TrEMBL record:
GO terms for cellular component: membrane protein complex; plasma membrane. Keywords: ATP-binding, Cell inner membrane, Cell membrane, Hydrolase, Lipoprotein, Membrane, Nucleotide-binding, Transport. GO terms for biological process: lipoprotein localization to outer membrane; protein localization to outer membrane. Belongs to the ABC transporter superfamily. Macrolide exporter (TC 3.A.1.122) family. Residues 4-223 form the ABC transporter domain. It is an enzyme of class 3 (hydrolase). The lineage of its organism: Bacteria, Pseudomonadati, Pseudomonadota, Alphaproteobacteria, Rhodobacterales. The keyword Membrane applies. Its EC number is 3.6.3.-. The gene is lolD. GO terms for molecular function: ATP binding; ATP hydrolysis activity; transmembrane transporter activity. PROSITE patterns: ABC_TRANSPORTER_1, ABC_TRANSPORTER_2. This is Lipoprotein-releasing system ATP-binding protein.
Length: 223
């Protein structure tokens, strides 16, 4: 059974206006457990839209999203929010860390919100930070970290509650090429270490080639 199944997704922005743009035109995609898939397409092709719909951050005009074999449209809003928080980790191009909290706290907070005891949450946060090489910087706020370190912390936060599915939107897209390569290595090590399933949007073909499968978006469908 696929961990993520998208079927017949359509999405149009600004319907009926001169600025109308049909971004998805029946997009289908399946991700099997443990599979790491690259989503490759030029800017503006609809990668963010597809990821947001898959991550339950946006809704399609038509089509279906199933996570772990469960059809999301059939769930209550409350249950869907639970699935989004517990089963899906999301990484953006920019870290979106909370500026007033340390790296450690940024990874601890989502665990506390999920009901994990503080001691356990902090231990897990430290382990994750060690794995991505930011252990010694755990008590720094995001502003005191480099761009690469900030993004590594964001990876840890996305994995804090041990999701089943990771969705990443150009996760190293705002870093210079050298940093991007190293930070991407850290992400792949984290993902492979947990056997997590992932859909990672990138327009870097070298990074894409290191994943299990590459899918392309073209004219609103996944080729
Ligand atoms: P990508 O991630 O591949 O760059 P996006 O999904 O961000 O693509 O955007 C696809 C197209 O939809 C672009 O033309 C973008 O400007 C447009 N778009 C995205 N989000 C919105 C929105 N909320 N309202 C209107 N247009 C949008
Ligand atoms: P990305 O680099 O992830 O593709 P974008 O800059 O395209 O990011 O989009 C950032 C956010 O703005 C997304 O949530 C997207 O849905 C929204 N967005 C993108 N294009 C438009 C648009 N033309 N009008 C309104 N919102 C948009």
């Amino acid at each position: 059974e696929p961990i993520l199944k998208l079927s017949g997704l359509t999405k149009t922005y600004n319907k009926g206006k001169p600025s109308e743009v049909q971004v998805l035109r029946g997009a289908d995609l399946e991700i099997r457990p443990g599979e790491v898939v690259a989503l490759v397409a030029p800017s503006g092709a609809g990668k963010s839209t597809l990821l947001h719909i898959a991550g339950l951050l946006d809704t399609p005009d038509a089509g279906h999203v199933a996570i772990g074999g469960q059809e999301m449209a059939k769930l209550s809003d409350r249950r869907r929010t639970q699935v989004r928080r517990a089963d899906v980790g999301f990484i953006y191009q920019f870290h979106h860390l909370l500026p007033e909290f340390s790296a450690l706290e940024n990874i601890t907070l989502p665990q506390l919100a999920a009901g994990t005891p503080r001691r356990e949450a902090e231990t897990r946060a430290r382990e994750l930070l060690e794995q991505v090489g930011v252990g010694p910087r755990a008590d720094h706020r995001p502003a005191a970290l480099s761009g690469g370190e900030q993004q590594r912390v964001a990876f840890c936060r996305a994995l804090a509650n041990a999701p089943r599915l990771l969705l990443a939107d150009e996760p190293t897209g705002n870093l210079d090429p050298d940093t991007s390569d190293r930070v991407f290595d850290a992400l792949m090590a984290l993902v492979r270490g947990t056997g997590l399933s992932a859909l990672i949007a990138t327009h870097n073909l070298e990074l894409a080639a290191r994943m299990d499968r590459v899918v392309r978006m073209d004219h609103g469908v996944v080729a």
